[in-house]
Design brief:
Number of helices of chain B: 0
Largest sheet of chain B: 7 strands, mixed
Distance between the termini of chain B: 38 Å
Shape of chain A: globular
Strand content of chain A: over 45%
Number of strands of chain B: 11
Oligomer: heterodimer
Number of strands of chain A: 11
Distance between the termini of chain A: 37 Å
Largest sheet of chain A: 6 strands, mixed
Helix content of chain B: under 10%
Order of helices and strands of chain B: EEEEEEEEEEE
Number of helices of chain A: 0
């Protein structure tokens, strides 16, 4: 089983839609969680960290469910510019390793 | 502010040739450094990470090696490239503390022919 798993998508949504992605992790000692955005043929860029109580940054909301071992990313009012691949990343407690999921591709259509 | 430089941006190398990719970080001390590889249409595979000069942890047995000769320099090498070494190689850094986010260089797209 992969340490971090994501639905590869693509999620094809119209502008203005709300879309949500989940990311599951297998190691219960996972400590820190992040969402990254990767545009085609570019490096991943940090979108937001995920805090235990959930956090919001504009149209983006991230949540953590430790009991079920997943994190989620909700995007409201999707824009064409949100089209990208969204990668989740997990740190294991006591480790310097940052493990990534394979990413979920989002396509926002006019 | 911190910046990370990675070069070259693209590279085409014949099978059996050596490889050296370099990554440097500016604006921070004692960063954690990482090499990842991303195959076409796939996720990021952690290859190596380093928490200090000369300290290298290898995640996947393979045809590659890494070195950290200076605090803010991380090098990925191979003596003889294989076709399967093709991919998008990304260097990243994070702060010296555990459980922090990482920031990526612009990556090197390597094609082995």
């Amino acid at each position: 089983r992969k340490e971090v798993e994501q639905d590869p998508g693509p999620f094809n949504v119209p502008e203005g839609a709300t879309v949500a992605f989940n990311c599951t992790y297998s190691n219960s000692a996972s400590q820190s969680f992040f969402w990254y955005r990767q545009d085609c043929r570019k490096e991943p860029k940090l979108l937001m960290s995920v805090y235990s109580s959930g956090n919001e940054d504009g149209r983006f909301t991230a949540q953590l469910n430790r009991a079920s071992q997943y994190i989620s990313l909700l995007i409201r009012d999707s824009k064409l510019s949100d089209s990208a691949t969204y990668l989740c990343a997990v740190n294991i407690m006591g480790s310097y390793k940052l493990i990534f999921g394979s990413g979920t591709r989002l396509l926002v259509r006019p | 502010s911190q910046t990370i430089h990675q070069w070259p941006a693209t590279l085409v190398q014949p099978v059996g040739s050596p490889l050296s990719l370099e990554c440097t970080v500016e604006g921070t001390s004692n960063p954690n450094l990482y090499w990842y590889r991303q195959a076409a249409g796939r996720g990021l595979q952690l290859l190596f990470y380093s928490v200090g000069i000369g300290q290298i942890s290898s995640e996947v047995p393979q045809n590659l090696s890494a070195s950290r000769p200076q605090d803010r320099q991380f090098i990925l090498s191979s003596k003889k490239l294989l076709l399967s070494d093709s991919g998008f190689y990304l260097c990243a850094w994070s702060s010296t503390f555990m459980n922090t986010e990482a920031f990526f260089g612009q990556g090197t797209r390597l094609t082995v022919v």
